[in-house]
Amino acid sequence: MEENRKKDHQALLNHGEENELEAFGYRTQHLRKAVCLIASMLTCGILQLMFYWRPHWRVWATCIPCSLQEADTVLLRTTDEFQRYMRKKVLCLYLSTLKFPVSKNSKESVVADRHSVINQAVMKPELKIRCIQVQKIRYVWNNLEKQFQKVGLLEDSNSCYDIHHTFGLGLTTEEQEVRRLVCGPNAIEVEIQPILKLLVKQVLNPFYVLQAFTLTLWLSQGYIEYSVAIIILSVISIVLSVYDLRQQSVKLHNLVEDHNKVQVTVFVKDKGLQELESHLLVPGDVLILPGKFLLPCDAVLIEGNCVVNESMLTGESIPVTKTPLPQTENTMPWKSHSLEDYRKHVLFCGTEVIQVKPAGQGPVRAVVLRTGYNTAKGDLVRSILYPRPLNFKLYSDAFKFMMFLACLGVVGFFYALGIYMHHGVPPRDTAPMALILLTLTVPPVLPAALTIGIVYAQKRLKKKKIFCISPQRINMCGQINLVCFDKTGTLTEDGLDLWGTVPTADNCFQDVHSFASGKALPWGPLCAAMASCHSLILLDGTIQGDPLDLKMFEGTAWKMEGHGVDSCKFGMSGSNILKPGPKASQSPVEAITILHQFPFSSSLQRMSVIAQLAGEDHFHVYMKGAPEMVARFCRSETVPRNFPQEMRNYTVQGFRVIAFAHKALKMGRLLEVKYLAREKVESELTFLGLLIMENRLKKETKPVLKELSEARIRTVMITGDNLQTAITVAKNSEMIPQGSQVIIVEANEPEEFAPASVTWQLVENQDTGPGRNETYINMGNSSVPDGRRGSCHHFAMSGKSYQVIFQHFNNLLPKILVNGTIFARMSPGQKSSLVEEFQKLNYYVGMCGDGANDCGALKMAHVGISLSEQEASVASPFTSKTANIECVPHLIREGRAALVSSFGVFKYLTMYGIIEFIGILLLYWQLQLFGNYQYLMQDIAITLMVCLTMSSTHAYPKLAPYRPAGQLLSPPLLLSVFLNSCFSCIVQIFAFLYVKQQPWYCEVYKYLFSFLLLSALGLTIFILFSDSQDIYHGMEFIPTITSWRVLILAVALIQFCVAFFVEDAILQNRELWLFIKKKFGFYSKSQYRNWQKKLAEDSTWPPTNKTDYSGDGKNGFYINGGYESHEQIPKRKLELGGQTTEQHFWTRL
Fold this sequence. Notes:
The strands form 7 sheets. Strands 20, 21, 34, 35, 36, 37, 38, 39, 40, 41, 42 and 43 form a 12-stranded mixed beta sheet that branches. Strands 22, 23, 24, 27, 28, 29, 30, 31, 32 and 33 form a 10-stranded antiparallel beta sheet that branches. The chain has a 6-stranded antiparallel beta sheet with strand order 11-10-12-19-14-17, with no helix packed on it. The protein folds into 6 domains: 1-152, no CATH class; 207-258, no CATH class; 265-385, Calcium-transporting ATPase, cytoplasmic transduction domain A (Distorted Sandwich), CATH 2.70.150; 393-466 and 893-1067, no CATH class; 482-490 and 698-763 and 792-890, 3-Layer(aba) Sandwich (Rossmann fold), CATH 3.40.50.1000; 498-565 and 572-696, Calcium-transporting ATPase, cytoplasmic domain N (3-Layer(aba) Sandwich). By secondary structure, it is an alpha+beta fold.
C-alpha cells in the first residue's frame, strides 16, 4: 500500500533524456499557507526571501504530499548531480470553451490519431485536461499512464503508414482547434525582460542581500564614506549586470521574432488549401512547401523532394537533400524504420528550403511533426534560456571555502560577544559590533573573483575570432588533457583534389586515368556514375552542394541545366539535366536525368541515385560510398580479387578512395521509381571502379599537434574516413610519432557457432623502393620490440570494431582507449559514445570538428570547438571563424590563464579577509575598530585594484607540459593561505603587544596595522613616513617617532621575504611535491593513470598478431587475469582506491 502511494506521488518526466525530471505531487493547505504568511510578516519578509531562494521549502511548508492525479502543485527535481528544484502550479484546460461541441462519450476519441496522448488526457464528462508548463514545454496528465507527457509533437510510435494515412489528407478544422488549445501556439516567444524585473532579481541575489545587511550595520556605526563607496560600486555592478542581461534578452528576442510571422499554406481535410499564420500550426497539419521558404516548425516530408540549407543547425551552409518518408505498411515506428537515417526525411525549424522538387503533378507536402519549443530551433533557444550548470570541481571547492570562512565569522561573532560583555558594554552596542565581525570574513567580491578572469579571457578569445556561448567552460579549457580531432576539413583541407580513377572490367582493375595528364575522363559507366551520383543542385545558375561532390562532378567536365530545359524529352519534370560540357570526352549519351535520390548518410556510408539516360526506356542505379560498403552490395564476381590490396595501396599513401557501382533497372513506369525501397534498389550491383582523391594536411596541423604533444596533451583522431587513410594522415601529421608501432584492432560480431572475436594486427613500415616510403600491413609473426613495448604503441580501429568491443569486450575497452589514437569509419553516435568513454577514464576531453557528423561529440565533450563560418554553432560552446586547429592551443592557453588568475584572485581575497579578520580581533580586544578612511584605503584603493588588474594578465605564449591546479582544496593553495595567515598573525600579535609597551601608547585612539602589499608599497610608505596633519586626522592615526616607523617597515619586509621564500621555494616547487608524492606513495586516482601503470607492468601487453574470443573470460567478457588480482597493485594504492581523482589532494601534479 505504502509502495503504491509513493508510486502515485512521484513520476519521471522525459525519462532517459538529457532534461530528465522527477515530479512530486502536492496539495495546497490553506491553514499552512496562512501560517507562512503570518510568519513572513513577523520576520519582515525574511521567510519569503528564503522561499524565493529555495522553492521546495515553500512547497514543503504550504502543501501536503498527495498523488499526482490529485495534485494542484508539482515539485520538480532534476535527476543530475545538482538536484535543482522547480515549483509549478497545475493548470486546467477545458474543451467546453471551444466553439463547437465535443463528445462527452468516453468511448469516442477527441482526435483521430490513436497514438495521441490527447485522447488519454481528456477527463470526461468534464472535458478537462490537467497540465503543467516546464521550461516553455507543456506537459498534460495522461490518465492511463498516470504521468505527465509532452504535447506539441506527434508521438514517435506512429508508423510510416500512420503518418501517410492518418495525417496525409490533413486535419479537420475541429481537430485543429482541439490541438491548438492543448498544444498551445507554434511560437518561439522570448520575452524581453522588463528592467524592473531584472533589477529585482539581481538585488535579491543572496550576496547582495548579505551586502545590504552589512552596509546597514556599517551605516549604524557611522562609516558613512566607506558605506557610500561600497553602495556606489554595488549599484554600478548591478546596473552593468542588468544592462548585459537586458541586451542578451533583446538579442535573443530579435533572433526568434521573425519565426512567428511566417505565412503558410496548409491542407485542411474536406476544405482544401488554406492560408494562415505559422503560429496557428499544430502537429499533424499538412504543410505545403511552395519554394524558397523558412520553416516555422519541424516537419516530416511525405511527398516530393526538397533541398534545405541547415547551417542554423550544423554551421555548414552545404545544401542537404531531403527525401519523402516511404509508404510502407508495417507497424514499426517511423524512426526505427529509417534507423539513424531518419533525419533525411525531416525538415527542421529555422532551416531554409531553397529548392523543391515535386513528384508528379502535386505539390511538395510535409506533415508538421513538432511545434514551438519542441522543435530543433526551440530546443536551441531553450538551451540558451536554461543552460545546464557545469559540474566543475573549482566551483564546489569555492563554496566549501566560503562555508569555512563563514564558520570563521561565527567564531568571531561569539568572540566579540564575549569581549564586549566582559567589558560591560550594553547589549544595544554589543550586538551590531558582533554582527560586523560575523560578516567580515567573506569579502563581498569573492564570488566575482572566480569569474573575472573568464571575462578578460572571453574578450581576448573574441579578438582571435573564437566565439563562446558558454563562458563558464573557459575555466574548464585549462584542464584539457586530451583533444579529439575530426580529420576531413579539420586536420586536412576541406577541398579534395582529384588524383585519378581506376575503372574495372572483367573482374580486374584497369589502368589508372590520371587527372594531372589533362586528358578528359573517358566515357563509360564510371564516368556516368561520377556525373550523376551526387546531391548537387542548380541554384540561381550556380552549382551548389558538398565540396567533394562538386570536385567529382567538375572532374567529368559535364554541366548541369535546370529542369525546365528539354525536360519533356526525358519525361520527368522537376529533375536536373546533366549534359556533356565542351571539354568532356565524346559520349554516345546526350544527357542524363536524375529521377530519384537516396541521400548520403554517415551512418550508411553511401548514397544512390536512379537516373535515366537520354534515348533509353529503362533506368539505371548508380551508387557511391566507402569502398568496403559499396563492395558489400555488389555481386561478388564483379569485385576484383585484388580489391583489398588495391585499396590498401592507395589508402596507406593518404589518398581518399571512393567506390562506384551500377545496375540497370527494368521498369516500365516512371511513377514507380519514387516508391522503390532503398533495400531493393541497392542490391545485386556491378562494381565499376575507384575514384582516388588527394586529401592534403592543412599547414597549421603539424605545428599545432607538435605543440600539444610537447604540452603532454593527448591527441586522438575520430573520423568517418577509411582506417588506412586515417593511419597515414596520423603518421604524416606526427600525431603518431616516428618509430611508434600501430596495432589495428579488428573485432567481429558473434556468429551462430562462434563467439565475438578481436584480432590484433601489427602495422609495419617498409621501404618498397627508392624514393618511396609506404606503409603496409604485415600479417606475419612480427612482434613489438621489447624496448618499445607498452610505451610507444598506438591502437587503431574502425567504428564497427569499436561497437563490438563496446558490447562484447567491455573490460578490454579502457585498456585500448589509454593508447587508442585512431578511430575510423565512426558514425555520429559512435563519436559521442567514444568521447563519453574517454571521460569515464577521467580525461578532460576537448573535441574539434567542422561537420554535422560531429555535433553529438561536440556537445558531449567538456569543451567542444566548431570550425564553422557561423558566429555561433548550435552544438558547440566554442566556435572558431578561422577554419584550422590553431584555435585549440589558443583556447587551452586562455583557459589556463583564466584558471590561474581566478585562483590568484581567490587566494588573495581569502588571505586578505583572514588577515583583516585577525587585525579586527586584536582591535576588538581594546573595544576599537578600523577607521572609515582606513577601510576605504584597504577595500577600495588596494583590494579592488588588485582584483581588476591581476585577472587581466595575458596568457603565457607557450603551453607548459603540465596543467594548472583544477581544485582549490589542494595542499599548495591551502598551505599558502594558512602559512601566510600565520605569518601575518604572528607579526600583528607581536606588534600589538609591543606597541602597548611604548611610552607614547594611548588607548583612546584607534591604530592601523598596515598590511603591506606590493601593488600599494609606495603609497603605504608615503603614508607611514608622512607628517601631514590631514592624513593623521583622516586616517585616524597618531604621530609616532621615526624609529618606530622604521621598525614597522623592517618587520613588514621580513614578513614579505619569509612569505615569498615559502611560497616560491616550497609551495610552488613542483619537483618538491613530486618527490613528496613518490616518497610517501601517493598515486593519482585518474582511471587512465591507473590503467597506464598497470599496462606498463604487463609483459604480455600489447597483444599482436593474435585473436581473442569473448568466451575466453568469465561472463562472456575478455578478462586479463592479472588485472583482476590485487597482488599486482601496490598496497598503498589499494588503500586510496576508493577516492576519485578530483577528491585527492595530489592529483593536480
